[in-house]
Automatic annotation (TrEMBL):
Transmembrane segments: none
Protein name, UniProt field: Fe-S assembly protein IscX
Length: 70
């Protein structure tokens, strides 16, 4: 999984952290949570604020949805 796999990352974050409110998680923590996901294989330093914001918004949108199928 790479930084650009926004929907897959969001689905995993929603499944792994169901009680978190994504829009209250600050970007440095979003980065750390993504890097800690199983299957994340991109360069941990190869992100930007726009990617983190996209992940955060997609994660918020995924709350309450079933996980993506593989």
């Amino acid at each position: 999984m790479r930084w650009t796999d926004i929907q897959q990352i969001a689905a995993q974050l929603a499944a792994k952290h169901p009680d978190r409110k994504p829009l209250t998680v600050e970007f440095p923590e979003v980065r750390d949570l993504v890097v800690g996901l199983d299957g994340f294989g991109d360069d941990p330093a190869r992100y930007n604020v726009r990617i983190l914001e996209s992940i955060q918004l997609a994660w918020s949108d995924r709350k309450g949805r079933p996980p993506l199928s593989s």
